[in-house]
Design a protein that fits this description.
By secondary structure, the protein is mainly alpha-helical. The chain has one domain: Ferritin. Helix content is 57%, strand content 7%. The N terminus is likely disordered.
């Protein structure tokens, strides 16, 4: 009972903080936001709630990929193409963040993140966490597909969700390429559903997993241990160290796959 109440309070605190970050916004600011405003007459408070949650998720994703590249011992022993996937994913997640920030007009209200013990040091922990996050991002963007107020936002959420799905599959491709000295090859990875799944085949979904989420608050619940110290401690994460989000100007690997606009 107490744990449930604490969880609700933590979630409420996170939502209030995110809401405050979105309050009083000049909706439709920035290049992408102006396009949304022209096409659909602006965005609603519910849209902003989803977008702020998405910003937090993307800031977390950028931070995760950045530290895998810069800190994880196993990264430098990976094949060049696997390193290239992780580097490209970092750029793509930053592009998603920049797009969402251009609509809300505000940065993520959370910029420091907690992780499980062994994150960035142990390959199994790192890949389990990475796939767990990608599972969560896929489900969260499907909430956007379900609940955004206009078709432009819904299609944009679907376009981003497709890239998160690529990331999940490619993270599973990396597992068998982990060197023996780094604890590899890794043949099973545990994602958001808590089940160790074989990496053969890495593309093991016929349909994307919704995690049965229908409301953005469920995505917020999943993010709590990564952004809130008390929730991180309850989840058994390492609370002695947090990792900071450092935004940058993204450079996508192929401009044909850039946002361009709602026309594709």
């Amino acid at each position: 009972m107490t744990e449930t109440m604490d969880r609700a309070l933590n979630r409420g605190s996170l939502i209030r903080t995110a809401g405050a970050a979105g309050a009083g916004l000049a909706l439709g600011s920035g290049l992408f936001g102006a396009t949304i405003a022209r096409a659909s007459g602006g965005v609603t408070k519910g849209d902003i709630d989803i977008l702020i949650a998405a910003e937090i998720a993307e800031a977390l994703a950028v931070t995760t990929y950045t530290n895998i590249i810069n800190r994880a011992p196993f990264f430098k022993h990976l094949a060049a193409d696997d390193q290239g996937y992780l580097k490209a994913a970092r750029q793509e997640e930053m592009s998603h963040y920049a797009l969402e920030k251009s609509v809300t007009g505000k940065p993520s209200p959370f910029t420091r993140f907690f992780y499980p013990h062994g994150m960035f040091r142990h390959a199994q922990t790192t890949l389990n966490t990475l796939v767990t996050l990608e599972d969560a991002f896929i489900a969260a963007y499907l909430v956007g597909v379900r609940n955004f107020s206009n078709s432009d936002l819904r299609v944009t959420a679907a376009r981003i969700m497709g890239i998160e799905s690529d990331h999940r599959t490619l993270a599973r491709v990396v597992g068998p390429g982990v060197a023996k000295r780094d604890g590899g090859p890794i043949e099973h990875i545990t994602g958001a559903q808590g089940v160790a799944e074989s990496v053969d085949p890495p593309n093991n979904n016929g349909y994307e997993r919704t995690l049965k989420w229908t409301n953005i608050n469920q995505a917020v619940d999943a993010l709590l241990p990564f952004v809130d110290k008390a929730a991180a401690a309850k989840a058994g994460f390492n609370t002695k160290r947090s990792f900071e989000f450092h935004p940058f100007i993204p450079h996508l690997p192929n401009q044909l796959g850039a946002f361009h606009g709602f026309g594709g």
